[in-house]
Amino acid sequence: MAFDGITVAAVVSELKEKTAGTRIYKISQPEPDELLLTIKGNSTQFRILLSADATLPLVYITDENKPAPQTAPNFCMLLRKHLTNAKILSVSQPGLERIIRFDLEHLDEMGDVCQKSLIIELMGKHSNIIFIDSEDNIIDSIKHISHNVSSVREVLPGRKWFIPTQEKSDPLTATEAEFTDRIMNAHLPVAKALYTSYTGFSPIMAAELAFRAGIDADASTSSLSEESVSLYWNEFNRLIETIKSGSFAPVIVFDEDIPVEYCSVPLTIYSDKTSRNFSSISEVLIKYYKEKSIVVRIRQKSTDLRKIVTTALERNVKKLDLQRKQLEDTKKREQFKIYGELINTYGYNVPEGSKSFEALNYYTGENITIPLDPMLSPKDNAKKYFDKYGKLKRTAENLTTIIDEVAAEVEHLKSVMTALDIAVLEEDLAQIKEELIAAGYIKFKSGQKKAKITSKPFHYTSSDGYDIFVGKNNYQNDYLTFEYANGNDWWFHAKKMPGSHVILKSKGEEIPDRAYEEAAALAAYYSSGRDSDKIEIDYVQKKQIKKPAGAKPGFVVYYTNYSMVIDTPKTISLSQV
Questions:
Q1: Which of 85, 127, 271, 389 could form an SS bridge with 337, CB 3.0 to 4.6 Å?
Q2: Does residue 427 or residue 523 have the better pLDDT?
Q3: Could you write out the DSSP letters of every residue in 335-351?
Q4: In contact, 232 and 258? CB cutoff 8 Å
């Protein structure tokens, strides 16, 4: 969701309520295009973050502080001079524009009461924070925009501040007749017709209203009936009334644990995903962008590790395929052994210089033709076949050992790739990197400090109060299974696929079926088969699990187990400790 006018309206509604009767206590500029205002009043203190970042302009209420540079920038010093202890008179939004205006009252050097305004424009690369006087003259701005940069509007000290004109209409004053005329004559897809006609609407919000009205958002407006347009207007008008009344219901939409969208009103268009309600739009913005940035940062930081694992996996898979083909070729060795035996048995009557001879294969009772080297005697021909048999037998034995080793390496690398998919924190990646260093895929540089491992397994509580632990990687899997779990605790794992070891602590009690099912669901979710509809899960008491000598991290064997087929959950509903 873009930071659209509807989101701004929700932020303004929250700011109005929160800032009533308060003053600006402190001003800092943590980033070149960001302000942090500390607000006091009504026996409370909080902060407002104003960010004019070109890629992520934001405004929200927060309790968190941010470190500021030792020497404050000029714009920050100017605001401190005029606005420290300034009273917040009002917070407003012109129309449904992506603009928030703080009207402020302060005392000048002579002790006279003055009014000034701080304006933040949340317009992508054109975002700005502008300080103006009571006549809307610009005193200064966090970004200076000259005529060379924008021919539409200069943002410089001494210039007049105004809202750039555009062809869009104000949705807060829209009538049904005007709405119908604009939509019907747009000759555009339904959703696009709305967000290009009215300020404050993002594409997803326009698509949401179309969905609520039962209209295809991508259909052309020329194909709409009067009834469809009327339904579209009803949903549009219902949303406008929500905005005017301030009856917002902020939500974040999650795809599994990844936030994919947020809005200040419910989004019914994402019926296949999970929505989580919040009490304020500020909470939504903080959580959404914090978790979104974590996901992006983890993906970026895991790119190098993924590349290493992918390269090694591809190399080992090719090696495994080649070795299996070579092993298949050694199966003809038994034929060479039979040739040698038959030559020794019947070769006494083979004429010299023969290129072949027919003999009865006493293993099958059929006659076969045996090729011969005419330059060799029957005895030497037999020896030649026995030598070939011996060589292929030794090759088969060596290949079998190598194939087992390479197959184990392939499974190990697949498990590391699954661990990368599971990783949610940078500490998780650090532990995976340590495993790759130990396996020889990453060289440990001389003098390099070993990373401090702080990553811990997931810890959930079942509906019946039983602790369930989930390993995030192979090291944690080994730790949970062979160090943490007791003999009577239960061990779960997705059958024949990479995934986490899941430990259900028994507490020495008889565990209810629901706890088993919830532990199995976690084993399915944290496996390479998490996109499958159903997964078979093996489970057994920990005392039945063994680790072969020299086995890779996370690899275990067991010979007696139970199994259940579980519907793979799309999200985890259990409480995480």
A1: 389
A2: 523
A3: HHHHHHHHHHHHGGGPP
A4: no
